[in-house]
Amino acid sequence: MDEQRFQPRSDLAVEDENVLPNQDKTGIDVQEREVDDITIVHVDIDEQGAEYSGRLPGKYLTLETLGIREKDTNMQARLIRILSEELISFLQASGVDENSSGLVIGLGNRDVTPDALGPKAVEQLVVTRHLFELGRIQNEDGYRDISAISPGVMGVTGIETSEILHGIVEKTNPDFVIAIDALAARSIERVNATIQISDTGIHPGSGVQNARKQLNEKELGVPVIAIGIPTVVDAVSITSDTIDFLFKHFGREVKDRKKPANALTPAGMTFGERKKLNEEDLPDEQDRQKYFGIVGTLEDEDKRKLIQEVLSPLGHNLMVTPKEVDTFMEDMANVIAEALNITFHKAVTIDSSGHYTR
Amino acid sequence: MDEQRFQPRSDLAVEDENVLPNQDKTGIDVQEREVDDITIVHVDIDEQGAEYSGRLPGKYLTLETLGIREKDTNMQARLIRILSEELISFLQASGVDENSSGLVIGLGNRDVTPDALGPKAVEQLVVTRHLFELGRIQNEDGYRDISAISPGVMGVTGIETSEILHGIVEKTNPDFVIAIDALAARSIERVNATIQISDTGIHPGSGVQNARKQLNEKELGVPVIAIGIPTVVDAVSITSDTIDFLFKHFGREVKDRKKPANALTPAGMTFGERKKLNEEDLPDEQDRQKYFGIVGTLEDEDKRKLIQEVLSPLGHNLMVTPKEVDTFMEDMANVIAEALNITFHKAVTIDSSGHYTR
Amino acid sequence: MDEQRFQPRSDLAVEDENVLPNQDKTGIDVQEREVDDITIVHVDIDEQGAEYSGRLPGKYLTLETLGIREKDTNMQARLIRILSEELISFLQASGVDENSSGLVIGLGNRDVTPDALGPKAVEQLVVTRHLFELGRIQNEDGYRDISAISPGVMGVTGIETSEILHGIVEKTNPDFVIAIDALAARSIERVNATIQISDTGIHPGSGVQNARKQLNEKELGVPVIAIGIPTVVDAVSITSDTIDFLFKHFGREVKDRKKPANALTPAGMTFGERKKLNEEDLPDEQDRQKYFGIVGTLEDEDKRKLIQEVLSPLGHNLMVTPKEVDTFMEDMANVIAEALNITFHKAVTIDSSGHYTR
Amino acid sequence: MDEQRFQPRSDLAVEDENVLPNQDKTGIDVQEREVDDITIVHVDIDEQGAEYSGRLPGKYLTLETLGIREKDTNMQARLIRILSEELISFLQASGVDENSSGLVIGLGNRDVTPDALGPKAVEQLVVTRHLFELGRIQNEDGYRDISAISPGVMGVTGIETSEILHGIVEKTNPDFVIAIDALAARSIERVNATIQISDTGIHPGSGVQNARKQLNEKELGVPVIAIGIPTVVDAVSITSDTIDFLFKHFGREVKDRKKPANALTPAGMTFGERKKLNEEDLPDEQDRQKYFGIVGTLEDEDKRKLIQEVLSPLGHNLMVTPKEVDTFMEDMANVIAEALNITFHKAVTIDSSGHYTR
């Protein structure tokens, strides 16, 4: 298995150009469903599928919703419920029983707003390990044994995050680990609108990959579940996406010159509806060249490479985050923390979870 | 003079497509110079120039540097010195003498990081008005009479910012007003890299324009100098810019197929050098169509409109800010505050100014 | 009426040694009741009572509870309800009708944690004035026209807070004003445990008093209701209080040598119960001298003066706040904001108010 | 050696009633000197002295100054220099050479302002370990290999801080450890005015003491130097102190009835001068009883116990911090961070250190 297999091109499995296009092959299973305007995509990759896709074998779940970006509190409440249900499934599938102890890790730099998802979520967890140790509460009271830490980032501590976490796991022996992190999207439409859960472990700080620095079930001996939300996107992705949106725009115009473009993609449509619509809309290559010249004929990866080649030497391939980053981070950290509190502790219910995170 | 004259399409005069292209006409005077790798552009627009450009008559100064974005502390020190020199010129040109009293206004929402430039800068000012009132210091001690306030934004206070400020100016009677605000750029390369000073007043919250809501010399009876830094840019601008960079990239390729693209625009070049280079690089229309099809033949404004038309209904025309927004805002607020402290108070020198803003 | 009349020795009427001891005289009316473990004290002072007490004539209401200090969320919910009921009474008594518009002022320095009560409360208000101005909502929708501002403090702005506020009131013409401020207690037991509402106006920054700087109904032409919570206390008060507690301790020992001191004043007692108990416990002067020598024979004010005289030249008469100041301020600002939102807007109910302040 | 030996009654050796009073005995060596208005007290306790004092054997250094409390920036600059000199002595005495690697630990809860000294100081350190690991810098460049972490507190993480730190030390193998923590003073005059350095290790969270939870040279195998500043004091200490100040006040009155009390203890005196003066001023027992009755005759510990007994059941033995806690914490964290940066890295000098902590 070569090095590159461990360096997927996107933090999100659903964005990986080797995953969804390969979903008909043996070893990559994709299931999609819609619940309460939230699109849920399950991707299961086995060892064989890992060969096709260059992605770690395991389960990847994606929840897609514009609810957070549109500050829709009802949607956030539904999202908390669904996220909790899916987390319970992940824990069960990983063999974690109701009384298991868990360690939650908030990755990222708390002083860089778009990177502070993990630390902000961890702050709002109902943490109980010390109360179990002191004998003050027990599982019968409706709580699990939960600990939580935000280890900081290497640029601030000088220490590989994985070294810190290996040490803590060895000392505290949790039955499972959950890691929360802010991700980079390769698509403008996923920023602050997608939650990914996976059981393939984490590789904090990425960079050069070696086994010692990984935090996964193989290295730690306990299940490691990662929860990530993309909070930033680079200028290359924004431009590449927009050129694609332009293609589809022209494609629709070609197919149906009577309908106004806006009517076809109202902001109220779900991701799933949009996607279906969009796929039908792609113009053929001849039209792409007509509207976009040579650039229109490039494959997606080549188009991205070209844009990168142009922006990077100018210092303009900025990694950006929406202007409203402060409230987005608060809302998303709150959604994750409430979902985890409900997942962990029977004593915390959907109705009461708001009290615990204030 | 119609309404629209007061709604220029960009916060920055140098980005206004009606300004620089009209610089040879009577009434618009543009002077450019380079000091210590900082490009300084003076734009003077008189009543006649205002007719051509639809922009308020007055003086606009732009300092361009990547020093802040590249976290170059020496560059920041030079920037503080030059910014202070230019502010002194603006005050002198407005008839403000050394012992005049000033009110500094920090516009924007302190709880929205990319909007908090004004409030963060104002926090670091050496404020003295109360000490003058109490007779504890006087001009002979090397200080001016300075007051400062961050009035918040209408969405938070429920009050038009201009109403708050008109009230304060009436009660405190400053000899001049300086307003600091975070702006929106129409170009990715100006974000966190440009400082604009103008004497045309401010129009907080923009929106519907009426005289009562303006804060300018005519309304307030004292000079109003605005200092702005663009901290956000929208996806339309990022894409439009990048398509232009692609044009130039192909243009250069057409002209000189032997040189690698990167060699032509090293990141170390100043804005001025890049601009000159870029203008020579524009491919002709035929090449633009070849590489970019119909999109390549669009005028800039049409191209932007098309992109806007595609992104907005999808909810993807996000206003974004670089990921490192927290440190950028700290650094830029500090540069402005130190420059103002030096400008206002003889007792604060370039060497000592750092002590006052900590 | 001399100057001194306007400089009461405590921010709290119930702590003023000229108020409660004079409650049997004409012109000072004191009513006390207990609701849900919250002690509510009404003090009405008329012009004649003002002569006795040196305190501004008007209505003073005090809510006493240890619920915030003890982080009891049920107590906080009750407190929100009762505070809202009392605020409605104050508004009605001041002739403010249901559709009146209000301006809420958050006094204090947001960057000094124990002083940030006003700014923190104001941040959580449902502010609507701009929506009324734009015609987007109206009273029929269940909202009042509310605006809110935190004007900062003179040490930071250089401007008398009253000047800023006079200007805003003139420009925005609210029907009533509510001002929120952190106060200084003269007693350790009131810190973070007492809320005072009064209709006598505010005198921001106190210091030298002159009419121009007052914000009251007479100056502004509209009712001004002040809400204050003591968040700091000085070392003189802590020591003086503790010496008094020691007196009572000895007093009880003298009267009942068999009961342990603790049993007499369990932490679970209400303020009212404690007070009654305490008054019975005062030892007579002979015992006071026996246990405390000459110091034991001093009147309260003389004792405080002596302590002040000793601590001040040493630089040790610190103004202090409890270590847990951060959460206390969050909790108290939240209680005030939720109570005001319920008071102002019919659309905000006790059950829903939590959603508005998150 | 019994359990209690490890539970000294104060975090500060100089406040321990078993230390200074025993300084003439073998095994406890006390040296005091004055440098630039800063009182420096060295206390060396050997195994024998540990028997007398119940305090861990080792070196304790105390720097006393009101410079931070009085916001005197020149005093702070001197304090940084002297603190750095003393830290260099401690490191040398512990056998740490110039090229040794260090781990700095910021103890305390970053979200509780008076407890955030450690996390705030650690944020401002020049951290280099990762750059050494990547080969980007080396000792020859004027830097040491430094890492730094703020592990949080048990109430937030659910994990004993010592478990986290043992894990990190094992994984990263530093040559020495420095731990920074906010302490509790037993005296109002030491709050924010004393820095203690010791080589006896730390016992995070104190509470039940057992060897596993200690972080000292014996447990970790490398020197552990603790830096602490008292930031809080309880009401018992404030009262007890003030009663002592009253004693001295009366004592002076007895001895010299002509001088006003204030003239004897001007605020400008150093701690050392005040202390000397004060010791001469103690009234004899007969006078103490005259002025303070039975309370006046109590030994210090008995007086404290009595006050505690009275305040605790009332819920009034608050742990408090000065109102200006926010700026005090900023200033003190800055002093420690600058002193450490200078101590660690030759490339950071007293003149340049300010640039690194901004």
UniProtKB/TrEMBL annotation, chains A, B, C, D:
Autoproteolytically processed. The inactive tetrameric zymogen termed p46 autoprocesses to a smaller form termed p41, which is active only during spore germination. The keyword Thylakoid does not apply. It catalyses: Endopeptidase action with P4 Glu or Asp, P1 preferably Glu > Asp, P1' hydrophobic and P2' Ala. InterPro entries: Pept_HybD-like_dom_sf, Peptidase_A25. Pfam families: Peptidase_A25. Homotetramer. NCBIfam families: GPR (TIGR01441). Initiates the rapid degradation of small, acid-soluble proteins during spore germination. This is Germination protease.
